[in-house]
Protein backbone atom coordinates (compact mmCIF):
# COMPACT_ATOMS: atom_id res chain seq x y z
CA UNK A 1 0.00 0.00 0.00
CA UNK A 2 1.34 3.46 -0.94
CA UNK A 3 0.22 6.75 0.60
CA UNK A 4 1.31 10.05 -0.91
CA UNK A 5 0.39 13.66 -0.45
CA UNK A 6 1.53 16.67 -2.42
CA UNK A 7 2.13 20.02 -0.84
CA UNK A 8 0.02 21.69 -3.51
CA UNK A 9 -3.26 20.96 -5.25
CA UNK A 10 -6.79 20.16 -4.15
CA UNK A 11 -6.35 16.51 -3.10
CA UNK A 12 -7.08 15.11 0.37
CA UNK A 13 -5.87 17.04 3.37
CA UNK A 14 -2.31 16.29 4.44
CA UNK A 15 -3.51 15.35 7.90
CA UNK A 16 -5.99 12.84 6.45
CA UNK A 17 -3.31 11.15 4.34
CA UNK A 18 -0.89 11.02 7.27
CA UNK A 19 -3.53 9.48 9.53
CA UNK A 20 -4.48 6.98 6.80
CA UNK A 21 -0.81 6.05 6.42
CA UNK A 22 -0.38 5.51 10.16
CA UNK A 23 -3.50 3.33 10.33
CA UNK A 24 -2.23 1.32 7.35
CA UNK A 25 1.04 0.70 9.21
CA UNK A 26 -0.96 -0.65 12.14
CA UNK A 27 -2.87 -2.90 9.75
CA UNK A 28 0.05 -4.24 7.71
CA UNK A 29 2.74 -4.05 10.47
CA UNK A 30 5.40 -2.39 8.32
CA UNK A 31 5.75 1.21 7.18
CA UNK A 32 8.55 2.93 5.28
CA UNK A 33 8.53 6.72 5.47
CA UNK A 34 10.38 9.19 3.27
CA UNK A 35 11.66 12.48 4.66
CA UNK A 36 8.97 15.16 5.02
CA UNK A 37 8.89 18.85 5.81
CA UNK A 38 7.19 20.43 8.79
CA UNK A 39 6.20 23.72 7.15
CA UNK A 40 7.02 27.13 8.57
CA UNK A 41 5.49 30.38 7.31
CA UNK A 42 7.85 30.53 4.33
CA UNK A 43 6.94 27.00 3.21
CA UNK A 44 3.20 27.73 3.58
CA UNK A 45 3.64 30.62 1.15
CA UNK A 46 6.01 28.76 -1.21
CA UNK A 47 3.78 25.70 -1.63
CA UNK A 48 0.45 27.52 -1.25
CA UNK A 49 -0.54 25.31 1.67
CA UNK A 50 -4.02 25.41 3.15
CA UNK A 51 -2.53 25.78 6.64
CA UNK A 52 0.70 25.31 8.60
CA UNK A 53 0.44 21.54 8.99
CA UNK A 54 1.80 19.80 12.06
CA UNK A 55 4.78 17.46 11.92
CA UNK A 56 3.90 14.26 10.00
CA UNK A 57 6.35 12.42 12.26
CA UNK A 58 4.51 13.61 15.35
CA UNK A 59 1.13 12.62 13.91
CA UNK A 60 2.31 9.13 12.99
CA UNK A 61 4.11 8.54 16.32
CA UNK A 62 1.06 9.65 18.31
CA UNK A 63 -1.04 7.02 16.50
CA UNK A 64 1.52 4.20 16.54
CA UNK A 65 3.06 4.79 19.96
CA UNK A 66 6.28 2.86 20.44
CA UNK A 67 9.90 3.94 20.62
CA UNK A 68 12.29 5.45 18.07
CA UNK A 69 15.56 3.50 17.76
CA UNK A 70 18.56 5.05 16.02
CA UNK A 71 21.44 2.87 14.88
CA UNK A 72 24.65 3.90 13.04
CA UNK A 73 25.70 2.34 9.74
CA UNK A 74 29.38 1.44 10.08
CA UNK A 75 31.92 1.99 7.28
CA UNK A 76 35.52 1.17 8.17
CA UNK A 77 37.03 4.17 6.34
CA UNK A 78 34.75 6.80 7.89
CA UNK A 79 36.67 8.20 10.89
CA UNK A 80 34.98 8.00 14.29
CA UNK A 81 35.37 10.64 16.95
CA UNK A 82 35.33 7.74 19.43
CA UNK A 83 37.72 5.20 17.82
CA UNK A 84 36.87 2.49 20.35
CA UNK A 85 33.30 2.17 19.07
CA UNK A 86 33.70 -0.91 16.90
CA UNK A 87 30.05 -2.01 17.14
CA UNK A 88 26.87 0.09 16.83
CA UNK A 89 25.26 1.78 19.82
CA UNK A 90 21.48 1.91 19.45
CA UNK A 91 19.59 4.70 21.20
CA UNK A 92 15.95 4.03 22.09
CA UNK A 93 14.27 7.36 22.87
CA UNK A 94 11.02 7.53 24.82
CA UNK A 95 9.42 10.22 22.65
CA UNK A 96 6.55 11.10 24.99
CA UNK A 97 6.02 13.50 27.87
CA UNK A 98 8.63 14.99 30.23
CA UNK A 99 9.98 18.40 29.14
CA UNK A 100 8.38 18.09 25.70
CA UNK A 101 4.84 18.21 27.07
CA UNK A 102 5.59 20.28 30.15
CA UNK A 103 3.98 23.49 31.37
CA UNK A 104 6.46 26.22 32.29
CA UNK A 105 6.07 29.78 33.51
CA UNK A 106 7.98 32.90 34.61
CA UNK A 107 7.18 34.42 38.02
CA UNK A 108 7.99 38.10 38.62
CA UNK A 109 6.57 38.72 42.10
CA UNK A 110 6.73 37.09 45.53
CA UNK A 111 4.55 34.03 45.96
CA UNK A 112 4.37 30.27 46.48
CA UNK A 113 4.70 27.74 43.66
CA UNK A 114 2.56 24.66 44.25
CA UNK A 115 1.76 21.49 42.36
CA UNK A 116 -1.85 20.36 42.72
CA UNK A 117 -3.42 17.06 41.65
CA UNK A 118 -7.22 16.92 41.60
CA UNK A 119 -8.52 13.30 41.46
CA UNK A 120 -11.34 12.70 38.98
CA UNK A 121 -13.26 10.66 41.57
CA UNK A 122 -13.86 13.73 43.72
CA UNK A 123 -11.54 12.67 46.54
CA UNK A 124 -9.30 15.17 48.29
CA UNK A 125 -6.81 17.05 46.14
CA UNK A 126 -3.11 16.45 46.64
CA UNK A 127 -1.07 19.63 47.09
CA UNK A 128 2.73 19.94 47.06
CA UNK A 129 4.70 23.10 47.87
CA UNK A 130 7.52 23.38 45.32
CA UNK A 131 9.16 26.69 46.22
CA UNK A 132 8.44 30.05 47.85
CA UNK A 133 9.54 33.17 45.97
CA UNK A 134 9.98 35.59 48.89
CA UNK A 135 10.78 38.93 47.22
CA UNK A 136 11.36 40.68 43.91
CA UNK A 137 14.99 39.57 43.83
CA UNK A 138 13.79 35.98 44.18
CA UNK A 139 11.69 35.94 40.99
CA UNK A 140 12.28 33.05 38.63
CA UNK A 141 10.78 30.20 36.66
CA UNK A 142 8.82 27.01 37.28
CA UNK A 143 8.05 23.81 35.42
CA UNK A 144 5.60 20.93 35.75
CA UNK A 145 5.98 17.83 33.60
CA UNK A 146 4.46 14.38 33.54
CA UNK A 147 4.44 10.89 32.10
CA UNK A 148 2.05 7.94 32.27
CA UNK A 149 2.46 4.35 33.40
CA UNK A 150 0.96 3.17 30.11
CA UNK A 151 3.49 5.09 28.04
CA UNK A 152 6.41 3.92 30.18
CA UNK A 153 5.19 0.30 29.90
CA UNK A 154 4.94 0.63 26.11
CA UNK A 155 8.45 2.09 26.10
CA UNK A 156 9.73 -0.85 28.13
CA UNK A 157 8.10 -3.46 25.89
CA UNK A 158 9.47 -1.79 22.74
CA UNK A 159 12.99 -1.70 24.18
CA UNK A 160 12.96 -5.31 25.35
CA UNK A 161 11.52 -6.46 22.01
CA UNK A 162 14.15 -4.54 20.04
CA UNK A 163 16.96 -5.80 22.24
CA UNK A 164 15.84 -9.38 21.61
CA UNK A 165 15.57 -8.68 17.89
CA UNK A 166 19.19 -7.42 17.81
CA UNK A 167 20.49 -9.99 20.31
CA UNK A 168 22.19 -7.26 22.36
CA UNK A 169 21.97 -6.27 26.05
CA UNK A 170 19.72 -3.40 27.13
CA UNK A 171 20.54 -0.55 29.50
CA UNK A 172 18.03 1.95 30.93
CA UNK A 173 19.42 5.24 32.21
CA UNK A 174 17.69 7.57 34.71
CA UNK A 175 18.58 9.93 37.55
CA UNK A 176 16.48 8.11 40.13
CA UNK A 177 18.82 9.15 42.95
CA UNK A 178 17.50 12.71 42.51
CA UNK A 179 14.03 12.16 41.01
CA UNK A 180 13.22 9.27 43.33
CA UNK A 181 9.54 9.03 42.40
CA UNK A 182 9.57 10.29 38.80
CA UNK A 183 12.62 8.46 37.47
CA UNK A 184 12.05 5.76 40.05
CA UNK A 185 8.81 4.97 38.25
CA UNK A 186 10.72 4.30 35.01
CA UNK A 187 13.18 2.06 36.87
CA UNK A 188 10.43 0.10 38.66
CA UNK A 189 8.25 -0.43 35.58
CA UNK A 190 11.20 -1.59 33.47
CA UNK A 191 12.29 -4.03 36.18
CA UNK A 192 8.76 -5.40 36.69
CA UNK A 193 8.32 -5.80 32.93
CA UNK A 194 11.68 -7.53 32.55
CA UNK A 195 11.12 -9.94 35.45
CA UNK A 196 7.60 -10.91 34.37
CA UNK A 197 7.92 -10.99 30.58
CA UNK A 198 11.48 -11.08 29.27
CA UNK A 199 14.00 -12.39 31.82
CA UNK A 200 13.77 -16.02 30.72
CA UNK A 201 14.24 -15.20 27.03
CA UNK A 202 17.10 -12.77 27.75
CA UNK A 203 18.94 -15.39 29.79
CA UNK A 204 18.32 -17.98 27.09
CA UNK A 205 19.91 -15.61 24.55
CA UNK A 206 22.79 -14.84 26.96
CA UNK A 207 22.03 -11.13 27.01
CA UNK A 208 20.98 -8.97 29.95
CA UNK A 209 19.07 -5.93 31.16
CA UNK A 210 20.53 -3.41 33.59
CA UNK A 211 19.53 -0.02 35.01
CA UNK A 212 22.25 2.62 35.35
CA UNK A 213 22.44 6.24 36.43
CA UNK A 214 22.62 8.51 33.38
CA UNK A 215 26.05 9.95 34.28
CA UNK A 216 27.49 6.47 34.82
CA UNK A 217 25.98 5.24 31.55
CA UNK A 218 27.46 8.14 29.57
CA UNK A 219 30.91 7.33 30.96
CA UNK A 220 30.46 3.61 30.24
CA UNK A 221 29.30 4.39 26.69
CA UNK A 222 32.48 6.34 25.91
CA UNK A 223 34.66 3.55 27.32
CA UNK A 224 32.74 0.74 25.61
CA UNK A 225 33.20 -0.88 22.21
CA UNK A 226 29.45 -0.60 21.51
CA UNK A 227 27.11 -3.49 20.85
CA UNK A 228 24.17 -2.59 23.11
CA UNK A 229 20.76 -0.92 23.17
CA UNK A 230 20.36 2.15 25.38
CA UNK A 231 16.87 3.09 26.59
CA UNK A 232 16.76 6.85 27.22
CA UNK A 233 14.12 9.12 28.65
CA UNK A 234 12.86 11.77 26.25
CA UNK A 235 15.40 14.56 26.77
CA UNK A 236 18.33 12.18 27.30
CA UNK A 237 17.48 10.40 24.05
CA UNK A 238 17.22 13.69 22.17
CA UNK A 239 20.74 14.64 23.25
CA UNK A 240 22.48 11.26 23.24
CA UNK A 241 21.20 10.19 19.80
CA UNK A 242 22.96 13.18 18.21
CA UNK A 243 26.11 12.57 20.25
CA UNK A 244 26.21 8.94 19.15
CA UNK A 245 25.52 9.87 15.51
CA UNK A 246 28.40 12.34 15.46
CA UNK A 247 30.63 9.98 17.40
CA UNK A 248 30.24 7.37 14.67
CA UNK A 249 30.96 9.92 11.93
CA UNK A 250 27.81 11.19 10.22
CA UNK A 251 24.05 11.67 10.62
CA UNK A 252 23.88 10.53 6.97
CA UNK A 253 24.90 7.07 8.20
CA UNK A 254 22.12 6.58 10.74
CA UNK A 255 18.96 4.47 10.60
CA UNK A 256 15.76 5.31 12.46
CA UNK A 257 13.14 2.67 13.28
CA UNK A 258 9.95 3.18 15.30
CA UNK A 259 9.08 -0.07 17.07
CA UNK A 260 5.60 -0.53 18.53
CA UNK A 261 5.06 -2.29 21.88
CA UNK A 262 3.73 -5.44 20.17
CA UNK A 263 7.20 -6.00 18.67
CA UNK A 264 5.48 -6.78 15.37
CA UNK A 265 4.77 -3.32 13.97
CA UNK A 266 7.53 -0.97 12.82
CA UNK A 267 8.01 2.21 10.82
CA UNK A 268 11.40 2.78 9.21
CA UNK A 269 12.83 6.08 7.96
CA UNK A 270 16.09 7.96 7.46
CA UNK A 271 17.32 9.83 10.52
CA UNK A 272 17.91 13.01 8.48
CA UNK A 273 15.46 15.44 6.91
CA UNK A 274 14.71 16.55 3.35
CA UNK A 275 18.16 18.12 2.65
CA UNK A 276 16.60 21.41 1.52
CA UNK A 277 19.88 22.97 0.36
CA UNK A 278 20.42 20.18 -2.16
CA UNK A 279 16.82 20.43 -3.34
CA UNK A 280 17.35 24.13 -4.08
CA UNK A 281 20.39 23.21 -6.17
CA UNK A 282 18.35 20.56 -8.01
CA UNK A 283 15.64 23.15 -8.76
CA UNK A 284 18.29 25.29 -10.46
CA UNK A 285 19.45 22.35 -12.57
CA UNK A 286 22.71 22.00 -10.66
CA UNK A 287 24.18 18.55 -9.91
CA UNK A 288 24.15 17.40 -6.29
CA UNK A 289 26.13 14.90 -4.27
CA UNK A 290 23.40 13.78 -1.89
CA UNK A 291 23.96 10.78 0.37
CA UNK A 292 21.09 8.26 -0.16
CA UNK A 293 22.39 5.57 2.21
CA UNK A 294 20.10 6.33 5.17
CA UNK A 295 17.09 6.38 2.82
CA UNK A 296 18.14 3.08 1.25
CA UNK A 297 18.52 1.53 4.71
CA UNK A 298 15.06 2.82 5.62
CA UNK A 299 13.73 0.61 2.82
CA UNK A 300 15.95 -2.38 3.60
CA UNK A 301 15.13 -2.35 7.33
CA UNK A 302 11.41 -2.08 6.61
CA UNK A 303 11.50 -4.79 3.96
CA UNK A 304 13.63 -7.06 6.16
CA UNK A 305 10.94 -6.84 8.82
CA UNK A 306 8.34 -7.66 6.16
CA UNK A 307 10.47 -10.64 5.15
CA UNK A 308 10.65 -11.79 8.77
CA UNK A 309 6.86 -11.60 9.17
CA UNK A 310 6.28 -13.43 5.86
CA UNK A 311 9.18 -15.88 6.24
CA UNK A 312 10.53 -14.62 2.89
CA UNK A 313 14.18 -15.71 2.67
CA UNK A 314 14.71 -14.23 -0.81
CA UNK A 315 13.63 -10.77 0.34
CA UNK A 316 15.94 -10.99 3.35
CA UNK A 317 18.83 -11.94 1.07
CA UNK A 318 18.10 -9.01 -1.26
CA UNK A 319 17.97 -6.50 1.61
CA UNK A 320 21.24 -7.70 3.13
CA UNK A 321 22.91 -7.63 -0.29
CA UNK A 322 21.76 -4.05 -0.87
CA UNK A 323 23.05 -2.90 2.52
CA UNK A 324 26.38 -4.62 1.87
CA UNK A 325 26.61 -2.95 -1.55
CA UNK A 326 26.18 0.48 0.05
CA UNK A 327 28.90 -0.11 2.64
CA UNK A 328 31.26 -1.75 0.13
CA UNK A 329 30.97 1.27 -2.18
CA UNK A 330 31.99 3.67 0.58
CA UNK A 331 34.83 1.45 1.77
CA UNK A 332 36.08 1.22 -1.84
CA UNK A 333 36.24 5.02 -2.08
CA UNK A 334 32.98 5.52 -3.97
CA UNK A 335 30.98 7.97 -1.87
CA UNK A 336 29.11 11.26 -1.75
CA UNK A 337 30.61 14.61 -0.77
CA UNK A 338 29.47 14.59 2.86
CA UNK A 339 31.35 11.34 3.52
CA UNK A 340 34.42 12.51 1.60
CA UNK A 341 34.55 15.54 3.90
CA UNK A 342 34.52 13.18 6.91
CA UNK A 343 37.71 11.60 5.55
CA UNK A 344 39.56 14.52 3.94
CA UNK A 345 38.17 17.52 5.79
CA UNK A 346 36.28 20.44 4.28
CA UNK A 347 39.35 22.20 2.89
CA UNK A 348 41.03 19.00 1.69
CA UNK A 349 38.07 17.62 -0.30
CA UNK A 350 37.92 18.05 -4.07
CA UNK A 351 35.72 16.61 -6.85
CA UNK A 352 38.02 13.61 -7.33
CA UNK A 353 37.06 12.38 -3.86
CA UNK A 354 33.31 11.97 -4.42
CA UNK A 355 30.54 11.08 -6.89
CA UNK A 356 27.36 12.96 -7.70
CA UNK A 357 24.06 11.51 -6.55
CA UNK A 358 23.19 9.52 -9.68
CA UNK A 359 26.71 8.16 -10.20
CA UNK A 360 26.78 6.95 -6.59
CA UNK A 361 23.42 5.21 -7.03
CA UNK A 362 24.73 3.57 -10.21
CA UNK A 363 27.80 2.35 -8.32
CA UNK A 364 25.59 0.78 -5.64
CA UNK A 365 23.34 -0.81 -8.27
CA UNK A 366 26.35 -2.32 -10.06
CA UNK A 367 27.68 -3.93 -6.87
CA UNK A 368 24.21 -5.21 -6.00
CA UNK A 369 23.78 -6.86 -9.41
CA UNK A 370 27.16 -8.54 -9.09
CA UNK A 371 26.39 -9.91 -5.63
CA UNK A 372 23.00 -11.30 -6.68
CA UNK A 373 24.32 -13.22 -9.70
Automatic annotation (TrEMBL):
Mn(2+) binds at residues 215, 238. PROSITE patterns: IDH_IMDH. Coiled coil: none annotated. Gene3D superfamilies: Isopropylmalate Dehydrogenase. It catalyses: D-threo-isocitrate + NADP(+) = 2-oxoglutarate + CO2 + NADPH. Its EC number is 1.1.1.42. One of its GO terms (cellular component) is mitochondrion. D-threo-isocitrate binds at residues 38, 55-61, 70, 93. One of its GO terms (molecular function) is magnesium ion binding. Keywords: Glyoxylate bypass, Magnesium, Manganese, Metal-binding, NADP, Oxidoreductase, Tricarboxylic acid cycle. Signal peptide: none annotated. The keyword Manganese applies. Residues 5-364 form the Isopropylmalate dehydrogenase-like domain. NADP(+) binds at residues 36-38, 43, 223, 273-278, 291. Its cofactor is Mn(2+); Mg(2+). Binds 1 Mg(2+) or Mn(2+) ion per subunit. The record marks 100, 175 as: Critical for catalysis. One of its GO terms (biological process) is NADP+ metabolic process. Belongs to the isocitrate and isopropylmalate dehydrogenases family. This is Isocitrate dehydrogenase [NADP]. It comes from Varroa destructor (Honeybee mite).
Amino acid sequence: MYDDFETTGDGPLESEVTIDAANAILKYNVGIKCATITPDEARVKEFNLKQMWRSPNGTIRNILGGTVFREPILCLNIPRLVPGWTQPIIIGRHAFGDQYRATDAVFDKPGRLEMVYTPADGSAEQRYVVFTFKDKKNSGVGLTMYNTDESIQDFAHSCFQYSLMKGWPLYLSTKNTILKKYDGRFKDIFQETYDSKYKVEFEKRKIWYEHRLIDDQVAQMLKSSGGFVWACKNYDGDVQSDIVAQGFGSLGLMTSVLVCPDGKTIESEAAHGTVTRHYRMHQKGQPTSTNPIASIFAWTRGLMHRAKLDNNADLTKFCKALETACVDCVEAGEMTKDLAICIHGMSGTNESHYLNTMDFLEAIALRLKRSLK
